[in-house]
Amino acid sequence: MAVAVSVKTALQVAEVLEAIVSRCVGPEGRQVLCTKPTGEVLLSRDGGRLLQALHLDHPIARIIVACVSSHLKKTGDGAKTFIIFLCHLLRGLHTITEKEKDSLISENIQTFERRWKNCCQWKFISQALLTFQTQILDGIMDQYLSRHFLSVFSSSTKERTLCRSSLVLLLEAYFCGRVGRNNHKFISQLMCDYFFKCMTSENGMEVLELVDDCFVELNVSVIGLPVSDSKIIDGLVLHRDFSVYCPADGDIRVAVVREIIQPVFSTSRSEFVLNSEAQFQTSQIWIMERTKSIMKYLLSQNVKLLLSTVKQPDLVIYYARLSGISVVDCLSSEEVSLIQRIISLSPFVLPQASLQCEISDTALVKFCKPLILRSKRYAHLGLISTCTFVPHCISLCGPVQGLVEQHENALHGAFKMLRQLFKDFDLNYVKKANDQNDALRPCIYKNNRKSNQVPKIGNHSIHRSYQDTGIKNSDKLEKTQYLKAHSNLVVSDVELETYIPCLTLKMMPPDRVQTDEIWRCLPPENKRITDDYELLIESNSTRNSLTENPGIEISYENFQVTNIAGKGSMLPVKYKSLDTCISQSFCSSSIPAGCVLPVGGTFEILLHYYLLSYAERCQQLEEIVVSKLIASALLGIPKILYKPKKGSHSFPQIYLRALHTLQTSQPMISCQAGLESVTGKYHVLTSVLQCLTKILTIDLIMNIKRQPLKNCDQDSEDELQH
Amino acid sequence: MMSCLEAHKPSLCHSEPLTTEKVRAKLTVLKGVLTSCYGPFGRLKQLHNGMGGSVCTTSQSTVLLRNLSVTHPILKILTTAVQNHVSCFSDCGLFTAILCCNLIENVQKTELTAATTIKLNKHLLNFCISYLRSEICGCRIPVDFTSTQILLCLVRSILTSKPACMLTRKEVDHISALILRAFLHTIPENTGEPIILGKCIIVPLKGQRVTDSTVLPGVLIEMSVQLMRMLPARKSSALKVALFATSLSGDFSDPGEGSVVVSYGVSLENAVLDQLINIGRQLVSDRVDLVLCQKVIHPSLKQFLSNHHILAIDRVGVTLMEPLSKVTGAQPIGSLGPVSPSSYGNAKNWCSAKFGCKHFFHLIPNEATVCSLLLCNRNDTAWDELKLTIKDPWVLLGGGCTETHLAAYIRHMTHKEPGSILQDDGCTQAELQLIAEAFCSALESLAGSLEHDGGEILTDMKHGHFWSVQAGPPSAVNWPDLLSRCGCGVYSSQEELTWSFLRSTHHPFVPHTRLPQEALEITQQSAHSLTVDCLTAKLSGLKVAVETANLILDLAYVIEDKN
Fold it and tell me: Which of A400, B158, B209, B451 sees the fewest Cβ atoms within 10 Å?
């Protein structure tokens, strides 16, 4: 049976989903209880999980769920916003068609034909959406929205330093939507403490990656205690108990093994021939003696703790106890690889012949002791980290399994979110600039990357371009103006610095390669020219100060960061900074790491405003239609967020105030504390637009009554497992 | 595989589950069942499975909730939360469950939004906890470890709250004394930091009189009659003990992943037996008197040992290994190689004992923190309670007094200083009054459910304690004559108090905080009649109850997977 797809049916489906999801969204959102066929009970506010638990039947719903889950795979956040936004877009489309239908009805076309016509029209709209997403959206993000961005990094030093107070705000807002109302403050505090305890350097990226990758190993769930008993534990808690525990102090060294220590009669694919009873006895005695001497040897190397991925036989355990070596065996390979990652220790390989040599594969630990959490015993190690991660674990308590699981998922999601936030995100948008300057850019890019050869060649061009820049700068003030705008904001100066290093990593557009080649052919000049350069720069910087171009000045200060970015370069530092400042003033289309906006629909309202103003300036009809459609759909989210609020905090009031501040170009003030990631929001927006185009391009749904093929794509395999 | 390919049935999604009449009815039924079990006068429930199996009579939350098959997801959340709490603390299960039900029920009547109620419940909980932990708390007694009275009261209170044990007053006294004695046994004499408690092995015995229960130092190993008869005559001197963790049965150890080829005529059994006999020879020459083995001892080795007057006991089991090692100081031996002399332990003596129809080998230690408690009715609860009390040496007044006192204190504070509870969260005072009333009446009706015989519950207007009176009191009576002592037994009715009915609305009054010293002194004298609860368990129970209630109130949907 085939079902015709129309916006109306899609809207109906989306509205049902929206009704469910909208009750869980935002700080006023509530919990959902899901039961599994196995009888387990799960609590969740996570949109993705809810959609999965519903086991939707309707084909359109399945498309939506598939889109959401692929979006979640990428970002791990924003499923509820996705649904709400999609629903509003469909609603907007529906009203447009309703209007058109009125005009169409007068014409006498057959229904079938009309449907085809409709389909063509949908295809047309979906293409317009796609063009919008790929060509217009990024530009608006970069040109207009970016001036409102705040950053979680503070700016006192050249290095990016994470600002604790903004992280608190960010996490609180995140957990508001993820965790039950009575726990979100506690959990976000826990996470914040945990993150700062684990972090040694200013930049938490490495920590975030490690925690995200090994989250399961780094947290222990304790069921039966109140949530408020959750705590951070110093050191690493292994999810296993000691097979042997011998209290030890002082110099404790640890070794990791991946094989059974006790020798066996025969290894695989070999044969052991027993010829006499005496031979059997001697070999057994040899095995014992060998095991004993290995243990003695380990002890002589001061190894007091043995971690093993395999189960060690009783004999090994016995001799370990005799030697005073504690043993934890049957560790999961994930746990062992986490330990290896923290203390950079490779597994210890048993020497084949003599036991005289020293083994290098041991590491010091501060302590190792059993830890009892609610009558379950764990091995607790005080590892001495060799990376930026200071080992800590979280013990998450809760009265029921489902609640602990929810908190675990939320914490893991928060680490994912931070990990994404700490990365730069390149926008698919190149700022328009003068041809000559455009041609220059790839060359500069090369300069940074390939240090020795290209830079000297590049000199010439930069020399030329620089003059251009100087002139351009004066008349292109408008373009660089947004940099100035930052100083209006509270957390202002940070972003400027973070922008720059990422820019040097800008991909080179392929069509420019040729120009680059030409420059490469230029005769290389010697170091003298570099000196010239410094002069030039100086002269230039004076001009800068004359023209008072903030963009150049600020990037100029930042040369140290660039220097770090282009490792191994022998170039004078100042030279580098010149490159960056030029490339910056001409193309800056990326969302830099750490960009955030206040919660409560700020992103949506801002984008709404700029889309509308874009639509006013726009000439093409479909662009106007699409921009307006998206702009009005964007308001759906703040509408839901402010639904329970009354008086001056109601949505119309907030909206009007925001519009007013934008029109008078005052800084935006959010009435809610809390921050959210810009990249996350941006991803939701693009994913929804992609999903919508997918829905619009389908005209018929055919029901196949056959078992799904075995070698289908990944998604259907996933579904089978559930 | 076919079932995997079957299409999923779509799930069922109910919105606002708590508002439906069906769910409310189910909650009421559950609450009814639990309330009727609560307290020393709780009614017993007989659980029997229509499909067969044994019938069990209980009023304990552990047994009750384990056996009840709850189907509705909301009830499931509630019962699992309680069960998990009980598995941690082994106490206050019914307290937690009933309080949670009461809270849900009362809060729903207020018809405030979930957001407000949850916020306020949380504030009230924090307020209660900080009060109960504070110095001024009026329902807390420090545990004096120099005298056993409070500890004895604690054990007694727990035992009496389990009516299914069917103990007489005398039996309760006996058992509580035994439990306490066994517990004191496990505290090592030379206490360093941290205190490592010894072990008490509880040996259940059926079909014996309760008063026959005893505490014995050392370890009891159950044996068959035949083995008992084979035991040699007793020796008076000290025993040298060898403790084997490895099997002495002569089985072949792991040959590895490859293959082992045995030539014709080679007998591995003989080879292993040779090894075993070698060990036996060493044991003989080392003058070992007693061989204990966790696993099986080969009959030939056993014969060899008994020929040399060595007592051999096998199949001791892994649970007894640690206590045995502790009692004797022996290192469990894990290899068939030569035994190192340092791994031997010693014991003072042994004897055979017969309790009821069971025969035991009783190992008497020189000096150790291990003892065996022979019990007719197993009661681990009291045990865990004592351990917790050592960690946090405070007890709360029991018998409903803590609840009524707490309710009175909250009422008073919400009227006098609402700011101390309300942390500017956008909640109004009126909202606080409503929720505080719901919270307090949840506590009070919890205390009220201690009364099962149609009696009336009163509270005094000075301390806010719990008083119960027999059913049908005449309208105008002299209360001091009718009442004797409050629920926990601290105050007597002769102390110039005024009373009012708990269920009636009454003005908030200032309950006396800080237990007066003289009350405590009376306590010491008349400790026999005090009822006390463990602070840690009760606090956690309170937290779990409120957290679970909040969780359930926060539910917007229930999605049921019907696959």
Answer: B209
Note whether B544 contacts A: Cβ–Cβ < 8 A.
Answer: yes
Distances (CA, A) of A192 to A182, A197, A235, A415: 18, 9, 17, 10
What is the rounded (10 degree) CA torsion for B540, B546, B552, B554? -120
Angle between helix axes A527-547 and A573-586 (nearest 10 degrees) is 50
Does the beta-carbon distance from B561 to A53 stay under 8 Å?
Answer: yes
**β-strands B45-47, B12-15 pairing:** unpaired
Q: Which of B15, B118, B255 sits opposite A181 (nearest CB)?
A: B118
DSSP string, A553-598: HHHHHTHHHHHHHSTT--S-HHHHHHHHHHHHHH---EE-TTEEEE
Positions of E strands within A531-685: 590-591, 595-598, 675-677
* Cα distance between the two ends of chain B: 15
Residues from chain B contacting residue A229 (CB–CB below 8 Å): 540
Does residue A660 have a pLDDT over 50? Answer: yes
Give residues with Cβ within 8 angstroms of A658, minimum separation 6.
A602, A605, A606, A609, A668
Confidence of residue B386 (pLDDT cuts 50, 70, 90): low
Distance of alpha carbon B288 from alpha carbon B284, whole angstroms = 6
What is the phi/psi pair of residue A303, to 5°?
Answer: -75, 120
8 Å CB contact of B245 and A225: no
Do B10 and A55 make contact, defined as CB atoms within 8 angstroms?
yes
Beta carbons of B263 and A275 less than 8 Å apart: yes
Listed residue (A599, A588, A601, A595) closest to A678, CA to CA: A595
Could you report the predicted ipTM of this complex, rounded to two decimals?
Answer: 0.84
Interface of B with A in 519-538 (CB under 8 A): none
Instruction: Give CA–CA dist B126/A183, Å, rounded.
Output: 13
- Are B551 and A31 a contacting pair at CB < 8 A? yes
Give the model confidence (pLDDT) of A162-214 as tens digits: 788 888 888 988 888 888 888 888 999 999 999 989 987 666 788 888 999 99
CB atoms within 10 A of CB A472: 21
Backbone angles phi, psi at B162, to 5 degrees: -115, 80
CA distances from A201 to A194, A581, B540 (A): 14, 28, 38
- Cβ of A24 within 8 Å of Cβ of B340? The answer is no
Question: How many cross-chain Cβ pairs, A to B, lie less than 8 Å apart?
Answer: 224
Binary contact (B81, A265; C-beta < 8 A): no
Judged by CB atoms closer than 8 Å, whether chains meet at A35 and B558 is answered as yes
Tell which of A22, A25, A30 to mutate to test the B interface (max B CBs under 10 Å).
A30
**Contacts A403 to B, Cβ<8 Å:** 551
- Residue A453: what pLDDT? 37
Residue A343, SS3 per DSSP: helix
Nearest to B506 by CA among B437, B443, B450: B437
Chain A residues close to B88, C-beta within 8 Å: 224-225, 374-375
- Count the Cβ atoms, other than its own, within 10 Å of residue B53: 10
Asked if A472 contacts A604 with a C-beta cutoff of 8 angstroms, the reply is no
What residue of B is the nearest CA neighbor of A282?
B271
Of A555, A545, A540, A550, the residue nearest A467 (C-alpha):
A540
- Identify the pLDDT of residue A469: 38
pTM more than 0.95: no
Taking a C-beta distance cutoff of 8 angstroms, is the pair A160, A502 a contact? no
* Chain B hits for A275, Cβ within 8 Å: 263, 266
In the structure encoding, which two tokens stand for residue B241, read together? Answer: 């003990």
Hey, is the C-beta of B49 within 8 angstroms of any chain A C-beta?
A: no
- Note whether B119 contacts A: Cβ–Cβ < 8 A: yes
